[in-house]
Predict the structure.
Amino acid sequence: MLFGQDRERLRGFYCEVWRARCRGEALDPLQEQIARVIEQHPEYHALLENPERALGKEYLPELGETNPFLHMGMHLGLREQVDTDRPAGIRALYQRLLVARGDTHELEHEMMECLAEMLWQAQKTGAPPDEEMYLKCLKSLEKRL
């Protein structure tokens, strides 16, 4: 995990990466990955340009709020899963879905629903994430396309 449980450090890192990108500064590979995700989410730019607001904000799903840091982190997590093919088979599945879907960003949003469900179930039950359930959910996306 990038910063463990230190929410403020993680959020601050996103803000620093965005500030560096806007200034045209050189980024290391991880920063470059994060900057690309941020670029795909212009709705978060103003937040990231205001670190004081970004660091302390609470996002309450019961009020319909989306946590932008969780959202962007899930994009990064999915990309890492595809790059490392973990769980096994996700890379090939992603490639098939991408051919059918045609839009990487929208496909990631669809896949994130499955990822979120798997993580929620693991948190709810206290069990490790169920990769079989996750892959089954992802495979169901093929049937919808």
